[in-house]
């Protein structure tokens, strides 16, 4: 090697907007792989690759603007991988590939403008194994397109062209072909005999959206592992359709017009390698007994979006590693007893968006085990009743449900014994948006390990004592959007693990003093209720744990002096949209860890600095639409975001922002400011976002934003400008 040469095995120059290469650009380099993809090259001059003739093995010119095959490539005699996808090539000349004829192994011409297979150029090659012509405009494959040179071809991609015709003998010379992709073409005529020469070698066959009229072509394809025949208008399968395909791993028949899945289509003694089946978006009406039976390594079955009405007994059974069954968006109204049986590894069963009107767990028998707990989704059905299993036997395994979703149904009553078959493993229960009017102490009797419960959007009017007494592991409860007006003192009794409670959008006025006693509440949402007085005494029991409190959209008019001081660990407090008119000097006296405070949409006619003095950690203060006529001195050294929009501010005092050295965002929009408050900018010099829109400001001068060197966002909409200095932003450079 010449001492002046530099050896770099891989050089990446993609995404650089390179428009031109020059002669000897890479001279002095020893390269094996070079990427120039995603640039703006429209041509490459002769000699551009001088010095790389004997070393460059892989060249990527994808996603450029090449209309003609670059002649400079002819000198690259050891090139084995050439990527030209996403250019503008319409053809290749006879000798374009001649220089690398002995070594060229992989050629990608996808995403160009080819109208035919460039067989003259390919004819000079001797060992191409992988060729992609995907996403071109090739309309026909003729007899000689792959002859002679195609004898080494193992992978061929012709997907998404404009193919109307493929000659019967087109693949006669490609007897080593293992992968063939022909999807997204629309043949006018189809001769099944075209596949005869490659039946014994094919391992991957993709012919989706290909106008395949029959599945007879699959006979004899014993090595095919990956089969994709989606969107072909296939109407019928027979039990022998796949009987010769013992190597099948993946079978995709989505988007056809299949009306049934015949018993024996998939056989345990034949399809020992089958891993996934996709029958989505067909017209299947019934899943019969033993349709899916004893397939040893299948993991996924997808029957989404069909017209299935009934799942017969033992339809899915004895598949030891089956993980997911998707039956969503069908018309299922009946699941027969033990329809899902002996499926120990299942973790997901999707049955949402069907027509079930009644549900219990007798459709499941030995589903899941101690290691594999199931997510069962029955949301968006028409279920009115959830009932107990009539012949329930203690110790019998029905289904090991970890998460049960029954939201968006029509359930009006939850039988106390309904959860008995699954209660021991149930951690998550979703009953939101049903019609449940009440709960009692038996509702969750058999859910001792429940951790998360969603009851939003029902018709609950009260929470009685002991309603959750059997669910001592509960951590999260959502009961928003109900009609709750009464919560009894013992509603949350003994829930020592309860961390998050959402009671928003109800009609609650008051809380019993001991209602939160014994909980570990960290987040409490009481917004959008009818609360007149902040529940100070009730909240006292959360003093050591509560971090986030939302009391917005209520009718609170006063916060008692020192009323919140026991909540000394609070990080976020939302009091927006209440009836507050003032704050006492001790309102937030002990909230030294508070980071977020929202007082927006109150009528705070009078506000001074005293209530804020203790808030040394506060980072966000929202005072939007609070009728403020002036801004007090805000002693908030950590504040980063301040919203004073939609107020009555006519001016801002020199000292208002004097302590806000860390402020980054300031919103003064929709006020009565007649001039830019330039006198306060030195105090908030770190500001990056400023909004002074919709103020009656008439003049913007060169010094309007002086001292705001870090400003990145500025909103000046809706001003009453009479004078605008062209140098207004000069000081922001």
TrEMBL record:
It comes from the Eukaryota. SUPFAM superfamilies: L domain-like (SSF52058), RNI-like (SSF52047). The keyword Repeat applies. SMART domains: LRR_BAC (SM00364), LRR_SD22 (SM00365), LRR_TYP (SM00369). The keyword Repeat applies. Keywords: Leucine-rich repeat, Repeat. Pfam families: LRR_1, LRR_5, LRR_8. PANTHER family: AGAP008170-PA (PTHR45712), INSULIN-LIKE GROWTH FACTOR-BINDING PROTEIN COMPLEX ACID LABILE SUBUNIT (PTHR45712:SF22). This is Chaoptin.
């Amino acid at each position: 090697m010449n001492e002046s040469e530099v050896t770099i095995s891989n050089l990446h120059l993609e995404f650089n907007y390179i428009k031109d290469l020059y002669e000897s650009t890479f001279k002095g380099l020893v390269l094996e792989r070079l990427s120039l993809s995603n640039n703006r090259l429209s041509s490459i001059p002769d000699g551009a690759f001088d010095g790389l003739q004997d070393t460059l093995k892989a060249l990527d010119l994808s996603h450029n603007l090449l209309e003609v095959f670059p002649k400079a490539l002819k000198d690259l005699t050891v090139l084995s991988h050439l990527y030209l996808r996403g250019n503008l090539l319409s053809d290749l000349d006879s000798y374009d590939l001649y220089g690398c004829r002995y070594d060229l192994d992989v050629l990608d011409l996808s995403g160009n403008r080819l109208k035919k297979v460039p067989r003259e150029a390919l004819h000079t090659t001797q060992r191409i194994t992988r060729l992609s012509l995907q996403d071109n405009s090739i309309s026909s494959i003729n007899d000689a397109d792959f002859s002679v040179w195609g004898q080494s071809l193992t992978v061929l991609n012709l997907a998404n062209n404009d193919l109307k015709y493929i000659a019967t003998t087109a693949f006669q010379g490609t007897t080593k072909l293992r992968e063939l992709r022909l999807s997204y073409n629309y043949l006018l005529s189809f001769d099944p005999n075209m596949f005869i020469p490659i039946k014994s070698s094919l391992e991957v066959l993709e012919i989706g959206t290909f106008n395949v009229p029959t599945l007879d072509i699959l006979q004899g394809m014993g090595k095919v592992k990956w089969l994709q025949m989606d969107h072909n208008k296939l109407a019928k399968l027979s039990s022998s359709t796949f009987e010769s395909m013992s190597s099948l791993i993946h079978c995709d028949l989505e988007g056809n017009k299949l009306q049934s899945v015949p018993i024996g289509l998939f056989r345990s003694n034949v399809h020992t390698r089958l891993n996934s089946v996709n029958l989505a978006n067909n017209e299947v009406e019934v899943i019969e007994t033993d349709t899916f039976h004893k397939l040893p390594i299948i993991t996924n079955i997808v029957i989404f979006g069909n017209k299935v009405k009934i799942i017969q007994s033992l339809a899915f059974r004895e598949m030891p590693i089956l993980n997911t069954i998707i039956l969503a968006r069908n018309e299922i109204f009946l699941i027969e007893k033990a329809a899902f049986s002996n499926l120990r590894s299942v973790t997901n069963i999707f049955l949402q968006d069907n027509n079930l009107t009644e549900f219990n767990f007798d459709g499941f028998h030995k589903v899941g085990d101690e290691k594999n707990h199931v997510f069962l989704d029955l949301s968006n059905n028409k279920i009115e009743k959830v009932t107990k299993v009539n012949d329930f036997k203690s110790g019998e395994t029905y289904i090991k449900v970890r998460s049960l979703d029954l939201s968006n149904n029509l359930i009006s009553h939850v039988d106390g014994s309904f959860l008995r078959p699954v209660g021991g493993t149930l951690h998550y229960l979703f009953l939101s948006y049903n019609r449940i009017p009440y709960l009692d102490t038996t509702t969750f009797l058999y859910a001792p390990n429940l951790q998360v419960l969603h009851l939003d959007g029902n018709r609950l009017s009260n929470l009685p004592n002991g309603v959750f007494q059997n669910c001592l592991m509960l951590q999260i409860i959502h009961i928003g959007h109900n009609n709750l007006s009464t919560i009894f003192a013992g509603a949350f009794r003994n829930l020592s693990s309860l961390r998050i409670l959402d009671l928003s959008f109800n009609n609650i006025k008051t809380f019993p003093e001991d209602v939160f006693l014994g909980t570990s509440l960290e987040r409490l949402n009481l917004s959008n209720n009818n609360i007149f007085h902040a529940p100070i005494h009730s909240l006292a029991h959360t003093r050591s744990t509560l971090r986030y409190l939302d009391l917005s959209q209520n009718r609170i008019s006063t916060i008692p002096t020192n009323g919140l001081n026991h909540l000394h660990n609070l990080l976020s407090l939302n009091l927006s949209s209440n009836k507050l008119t003032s704050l006492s000097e001790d309102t937030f006296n002990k909230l030294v860890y508070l980071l977020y405070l929202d007082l927006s949409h109150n009528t705070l006619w009078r506000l001074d600095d005293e209530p804020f003095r203790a808030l040394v950690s506060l980072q966000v203060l929202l005072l939007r639409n609070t009728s403020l006529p002036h801004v007090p001195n805000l002693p908030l050294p950590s504040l980063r975001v301040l919203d004073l929009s939609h107020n009555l501010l006519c001016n801002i005092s020199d000292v208002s922002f004097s302590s806000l050295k860390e402020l980054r965002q300031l919103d003064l929009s929709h006020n009565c400011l007649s001039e830019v408050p330039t006198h306060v900018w030195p105090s908030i010099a770190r500001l990056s976002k400023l909004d002074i829109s919709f103020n009656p400001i008439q003049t913007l001068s060169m010094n309007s934003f002086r001292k705001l060197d870090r400003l990145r966002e500025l909103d000046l909409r809706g001003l009453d400008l009479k004078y605008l200095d062209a140098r207004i932003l000069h000081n922001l450079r």
